[in-house]
Specification:
Length: about 300
């Protein structure tokens, strides 16, 4: 059997188009565009690429993009003052501070400062708490995008056994909460988990969010399971090549012989993240203006 390849790129393009149309309606109704502010501190090349592509996607979706690029030696006070200013700015509906921050800065304190109403990354304690309580709120983009792909494949996830490998605040924990809210039976695995392969083998749904190239092997996967590979890892370059290949946390080639459906890397979960960020910004803008967001 060969798995269905879940085309996250195509799904994300559809979502972006839908968000773009709703953002145009929002601008017409309110007389202003929804706005996303992205804050980048320092000159990490990967972060610069992410910020640039977020800016482009925001504009393409009929929203306003505000980029704040700060020097690597920015102080905690300066960064928090900018977050405070963005919290007050009526043109800004979403605030995203690109992580990781340089090591002299207190990341949690900066995130805590973001107004929960504008927390489009879903990382503030209020957003995290609301998700755990099953209340409406802004949910981290990567796990929400992963859930959308799962629902596209299965519709109802109720009663399915799900294993999430990884327990980060950004991916693993919110993913587990989302699956629980969909009535899955959820196991969260991490670096101290015993018998990981065996646990994964019991799952109808496997979400791998570890950051270890091709760690999840084909013989860990139950026949017909759905595999969501969140990992993005760059292999060392092959001879004569400048850059190594991007791979996920799952051994894609062999796993796709066993799985029922699987996301590729790249082109699976990755494109969903930005699409959901745009959606979250639109959701935040509608809530701020107290208008309903059409489904
Ligand atoms: P973190 O490093 O924050 O978390 C990794 C998790 O994996 C931890 O919970 C850790 O356990 C667990 N882990 C590490 N080694 C093992 C192991 N040998 N066995 C089982 N569990 C293990 O990473 P993130 O959650 O931020 O990201 C995970 C991956 O997803 C990365 O490759 C990242 O690049 C990618 N990513 C992709 C995104 C996208 O848009 N597609 C967005 C965000 C991330 P412990 O807690 O015990 O240390």
């Amino acid at each position: 059997m060969t798995a269905q390849i879940i085309d996250g790129k195509a799904f994300a393009a559809q979502l972006r188009e839908k968000v773009g149309a709703l953002a145009a309606d929002f601008a017409e109704k309110t007389g202003r565009k929804a706005g996303l502010a992205v804050v980048l501190v320092g000159d990490d090349p990967a972060s610069q690429v992410y910020v640039r592509s977020k800016g482009k996607a925001t504009i393409a979706a009929n929203m306003e993009s505000f980029e704040h690029k700060l020097a690597g030696d920015t102080t905690q006070e300066q960064l928090e003052a900018l977050v405070d200013k963005l919290n007050r700015d009526p043109a800004v509906d979403g605030i995203l501070v690109q992580l990781p921050l340089p090591s002299h800065l207190d990341e949690q304190a900066v995130v805590d400062r973001i107004s929960p109403a504008k927390d489009v990354d879903g990382l503030t304690p209020v957003s995290t708490g609301r998700l755990a309580l099953g209340l409406e709120g802004l949910v981290p983009c990567t796990p929400l995008g992963s859930l959308m792909l799962l629902k596209q494949i299965h519709g109802d996830l109720s009663g399915m056994d799900a294993v999430v490998v990884g327990r980060s605040i950004l991916v693993g924990k919110p993913m587990a909460q989302l699956l629980l809210a969909e009535n899955c039976t959820v196991t969260i695995a991490h670096s101290r988990t015993r018998n990981l392969a065996e646990i994964v083998r019991g799952a109808d749904i496997v979400v791998a969010a570890v950051g270890r190239a091709e760690m999840v092997q084909a013989d860990w996967i139950k026949q017909g399971a759905t595999v969501i590979d969140v990992g993005i890892n760059r292999l060392p370059p092959e001879e004569g090549k400048e850059k190594g290949r991007l791979v996920g946390d799952v051994a894609f080639g062999s796993a796709s012989e066993v799985a029922g459906a699987i996301t590729p890397v790249p082109g699976g979960v990755g494109p969903m993240t930005i699409a959901v960020l745009l959606r979250n910004t639109l959701v935040a803008a509608h809530r701020i203006e107290s208008i309903d967001l059409p489904e």
